[in-house]
Fold:
Amino acid sequence: MSFFPLIIAILFFIAGLAGTVLPVLPGVPLIWAGMFLYGLLTGFARLSWSFYLVQGLITVFVLLLDYLAAVWGVKKYGGSRSAGWGAVLGGIIGLALLGPVGVIAGPFLGAALAELASGKEPAQALRTGFGTVVGFLGGTLLKLGIEIVMIVWFFLAVF
Structure:
């Protein structure tokens, strides 16, 4: 067994896990790419097409999880549909303007401002903004858990 493909995959896994908490790196796509590169470098000898397909579907689900978690947090804390859109838009703008801090501040501010613009009381707007942070943090923990399962499955399939 050649260790070079395995080392490449592990480096991608580390970068992917870091990307789950550092928004400058695309977390789960890096993990999947590490698995795919391993397959390319080994001639797809150890992992089946169904492995890559299921891992790819999990990757898509984890990508959607970011948005779903923020929307869940908004709904759970009494926010409106416009607050959900505000959280998503705030996340994009926050990341662009504030970097890693904007990942949390952006959705919070976006949801809260959307609630204020729709006539909600400031206390409810802050509650909704807080809900986006809860959703984001919960989603991040869930993503990390799923990504770890993906990586463990990779190692179980390879060895």
In short: The chain has a mean pLDDT of 92. The first helix runs from residue 3 to 21. Helices lie at 3-21, 27-41, 49-76, 81-98, 100-117, 122-158. Residues 139 and 145 are 10 Å apart (CA to CA).
